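Supplementary Methods, section 5.1.

A reviewer requested that the exact input to the structure prediction be made available. We therefore reproduce it here, unchanged from the version used in the analyses.
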Amino acid sequence: MIINKRIDLLNVMLFLASPFLAIPSIFYGVIQKSKFSLGLLIMTFGLTSYYYIPNFSDDKARYFEIYEDFQGATFLDMFSFFFLSSQDFILQSLFYVASQMQIPAQLIFALVTIITLSLIFKIYYKIYDRFEKIEKKHALISLILLIFSLSYLDLFSGTRFMFATSFLVYSFYAGLIEKKKKLAIILLLVACFIHFSTVTFVAIYLMLLIYPKHSNLYKTIFFISMIFLLLPKDILFNLVSSLGFSGALEAKSKVYLNENDFIESGLETGTFGSFVIYYVGLLWIFASYIYLIITMKNKSLFRNIVLLLGAAINLFYAVPTVFFRYALIYKLLFTFLLIWELYREKRFKIVYTFIALFFMGNITQIIVTRNNIEKSFINADNFFLLNIFTKPEITPNDFIY
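The structure derived from this sequence is encoded token-by-token as follows.
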């Protein structure tokens, strides 16, 4: 306890000087189970989100524009536009409140990132705290694995889906692992109202809630789902159409399963970024499937969750944009399964393999966002906390075209 207090004091002093230079010490505090150090790590990501300048085509850019539109709008305007015409209204509501209170849009992005990572790292801390006598090197390895598993392109540019994903992932952990069913339902509803496409996973949660221990059933479903890796897109269209969706579900399904898939279009035009992200993304996913297959004798509720999620994303393989978006949810829960089994079974080589695969994914994202990184962070002043809030606010004129 005394050691943690000393670490916390050192970390807060370093953080106040430079959050980014304090990272090594913060890491040390986290593996010592310091919640305060974990909070500082999350705050550092929040500051990074505060700084990040998006491309004009990014979702984040749209929310800067929404923020400006809301400055001259009434509550009735906002209500009629989002509450009556869309199921996704939580993030928009945050920007409306911020615009009315003259809170900079950048602070909302920082807040959303902090909430997102707080939920994700809370699961990490709970798993770490659940196991006794964990060696510090194992804790460090698991922390690195989780940090590398995050999709920073989606966290800092996509914003809304990662925001919804954090609530969804935590709902699975709270409801299925911790048996906090009421909390899980609330979290699921919040996820759906942040990004309605996450409603797909409500049925998956309910199935796992009703049949939590049917390992053989989930293994069978997982293997059957591999068929969808070979089926053309038309089969998926026909399958969804046969379900007879109407209203909002019908509209959303048409949007997400349209023929002009974003990633497919990039592959057809031969853009370097699309090729790299696509194939590196497939690499870790298929590697995770191989791991699940060669360790199929293992049984746990965590495995059942991951197997059913893997089966679910396979259904959308013919539509790459949906497949990779949903894979973000699968990736986080698969990472937590790896951490769980690292602590329980000491699977070092497997964990090192996925650290390398996730690192490759991060490198591709750095390549794709190199202009954003250069414009947002390549400045010595950005490393000092006192300079952060004295810089001019980001406006649409700063976007990268």
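The chain is about 75% helix and 0% strand. These observations are discussed further in the main text.
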